[in-house]
Amino acid sequence: MRLLAIDTSGETCSAALLCGDALTQVLDFAPRRHGDLILGMMARLLAEAGLALGDLDALAFGQGPGSFTGVRIAAAVAQGAAFGAGLGVIGVSTLAALAQGHHRATGQGPILAALDARMGEVYWGCYRIGAEGLAELDGVEAVAPPGAVRATGQGLWYGVGSGFGAYREDLRLALGGALAGVDPGRVCEAGDLARLAAGAWRRGDVVAPERGLPVYLRDRVTAG
Amino acid sequence: MRVLGIETSCDETGVAIYGDGEGLLAHAVYSQIEIHARYGGVVPELASRDHVRKALPMIRQVMEEAGLAAGDIHGVAYTAGPGLIGALLVGSALGRSLAWAWGVPAIGVHHMEGHLLAPLLEEPAPEFPFVALLVSGGHTQLIDVAGIGRYRLLAESLDDAAGEAFDKTAKILGLPYPGGPELAKLAEQGDPGRFRFPRPMTDRPGLDFSFSGLKTFTLNTLRAELAGDGDPQQTRADVARAFEEAVVDTLAIKCRRAVRETGHPRLVLAGGVSANRRLRARMDEVMAAEGGRTYYPRPALCTDNGAMIAFAGWQRLKAGQAEPLGFHPRARWPMETLPPI
Predict the structure, then answer these.
(1) How far is A208 from chain B (nearest CA, A)?
(2) Chain A residue numbers touching B104 (CB-CB < 8 A)
(3) Is A133 left (phi over 0), alpha (psi -120 to 50) or beta?
């Protein structure tokens, strides 16, 4: 199985190639330079592995939540490249990738991932680590004020993502003793998207390119 | 060479394919008017959200209509500005990535160059050099066009674009969004002799435009007249007619000056407002009197569309221009900075 994954949902830009168990990733801190960088990253990974786009089994992308423009760039790049190469696409949650990244780095779980959504809210979701070592959503992903965030079960949770930087005290108050520790600095990485996409691929969760669409969570975007 | 064109700069998704000696092979436009109507104007985030849903299915559609497969297309053109940055990013990301996957060159097209060259899709096409009047919701410009990428800005609006003035005045008249075409329809029932509105900036030399004062004049006239006891519907129609006459006349006076100053006997009309029937008729009269001729695209190619992007991109790709592996659309992009071919 060969998957190429991309993420442009935040201030970093990353791409990762997963061939069987071998993962290679490139990542850059690149606010507003996603358009300049992402295709070059994808081309470089493929060239280094001696592969063409058409040799892949699918293209994965960080579908959100995150910057509206950022997740649209990832979706549009995945759509265009996948359609052009005759591939299917796999949209992967950026919150799930945050949880996966934390588990990869620390072995810890379960994880409550929260991203700063601005306007006094966070995008959040609860993840448990499944049998394959992959983050699995427990409940639903949502956008809400930090005071409304709740763990979906008993026990100790690890708080991960920029939401824990922007609303550290609000989230501590809301979660009380359920919080074992926090890592506000973790960002979404394409390598973690790729690992999650591999699980989706094994389950057959691959769609036609035009169905690779962003997940914004926040749908109220007008004042009216 | 066959080129796929993608337009997503504002509230229309347009996709088309243009080929050497084949002309326009397929062309589709989806308008988001219904999405934005309840807000009385384009909501940028909603526009971007819709483009990312519509653009790829429309690419599939035009390729099927043209009976073409991946290997039959030799270049991809996408609008890279000016326009709404979020909306531009969708078409740019999609178009650039598709070109990469196909292994063909890509080109980011200037939206207004697309409009400006659209009349070259028609028969007879204007020869260079010519004077172009670009009139849309965002632009009112007079340009001396010596060739592709050889543009000299002669004049522009100091405030509202002509199309913007049409839309805002339509709102004053209580017409549904987007009001420009509705205003023109209402003006058909208007008495041309009842009101005479000023022709802004025509009493002094120069080519620049200004339409915001005319809009205010219209509002004041309408208020005063509706306070009287005439038929309000007829008054609205008469005001619409006087407004349209004033805009058309102003544009005609400036175009005549530009044609005389440059010595080019050819005038090209492009952009959404160039679909206006009265504007076309008046410019035909003006240019006949000047011993020249007016050129404009069919109405479907006046408003935003993918055909003009495919065509402008084809011109530049054919000349060997292409983008590096990346996309970088610009909300603002002066047309005079474009390279010649």
Answers:
(1) 11
(2) none
(3) left
